[in-house]
Amino acid sequence: MTVQKLLEVDKHEAQRLRKYLETHNVYDSSQKILIKNSSARIPIKSESDEDQLKEDISKNFGYSVQILVEETRGEKLNSPKNKLDLLKKRVSEQCGDVKDLPESYEIYGDLILIPSNSLLAESEQKEEVYDIICDIFRVNRIARKNAVVNDKFRSPRTDLLRGAEPWVHIVENRIRYNFDVTKSMFCRGNITEKMRVAKFDCSTEVVVDLFAGIGYFVLPYLVHANARHVYACEWNPNSVEALKVNLEDAGVADRCTVLLGDNREVAPSNVADRVNLGLIPSSEISWKTGVCALKPSGGVLHIHSNVEVKSNQTKQESFATTGQHILHCIQTLVKEHKEGDYSCEIIHTECVKSYAPRIYHVVFDLKISQK
Q: Cβ distance 179 to 109 under 8 Å?
């Protein structure tokens, strides 16, 4: 007998919550989601911290969940770990000793992305190994991560081991993100912030996104928050190429102006009701640009930052300390670059995810209003 933890939730919330659990490495993909009447039971990993998980879900989704513990029979044959074990077993039986098989992976449609230290050694049987990988993981293409290029874009350097087409896609919250896996990366960890943005009502607003990438936040603003117009600033040409594809794919290209270049040089001034500054570990290089982008009447800045929790502080105390530092800096920039008298206040603090031990990705919403 083995123990299985199940998170019980309204069935209409199941897929949205599953994606959240996936990005936080809590979802147990070896088991199926069970639908019974109006509820869904989502399998979660047995080592999950139940109290912390309940707290996080309540904060991010606004409702409480129940966690059930049940006994199950048999092995979890489809879990990532067992697929990797199966890979080792079949490769050993068919190809002999291959020491650098992948220990983890990411799936993008029919492409599997494996770590940079995998399948590096030359082997006469590499094509047979690729065949086994494709069979176990039900894919047609194999790509391997490589060291990030030390350019101003920190571009990925991904090698295609099998297949010639580098474009992949992933769907999040009903938005399709297309990108060239050899030139761009996809950040899965920001799903809760994308979902928060999707709930905004921006139907009368102009938004400026200073770090647009392939459209991580641009698309939720346009598709779900229904922004009147978005100015998307991005200096990486490869990301801009994917962004334009995604805008067309979503049918919102007519409401977006893409500005290729350093946002400190290309961002518009005095147009925005809302400015997104989605760069970590810090977006400080563009705080001045964000302030200048706001309309003369003011608006909201969404400032992303990594926050380190000191050993002598609670998480909330560390967030508050960082927030007050950001607020002071923005107040100074407003005085220097906006004409008139303004008030500045933090209206919301959103913890997006744990970035590293004792380091959290946090978004501070600052409202700037003309008095």
A: no
* Separation CA 223–CA 137 (nearest Å): 32
Return the pLDDT at 24: 75
User: If you search the block for the tokens 């706001």, which residue do you land on?
Assistant: 294
The tens digit of pLDDT for each residue in 276-294 reads: 999 999 999 999 999 999 9
Residue at token pair 């999040």: 172
Q: Read off the pTM.
A: 0.78
236 residue type, one letter = N
Asked if 292 and 269 touch (Cβ cutoff 8 Å), the reply is yes
Q: What is the pLDDT of residues 290-309, one digit of tens each?
A: 999 999 999 999 999 999 99
Q: Quick one: average pLDDT of 155-177?
A: 89
Residue 359, phi then psi, degrees to nearest 5: -125, 130
Are 21 and 56 spatial neighbours (Cβ–Cβ below 8 Å)? no
Return d(Cα 118, Cα 104) in angstroms, integer: 9
End-to-end CA distance of the chain: 66
8 A C-beta contact, residue 303 and residue 277? yes
Q: Answer yes or no: are the C-beta atoms of 148 and 156 closer than 8 Å.
A: yes
Cross-strand partners of 353: 361
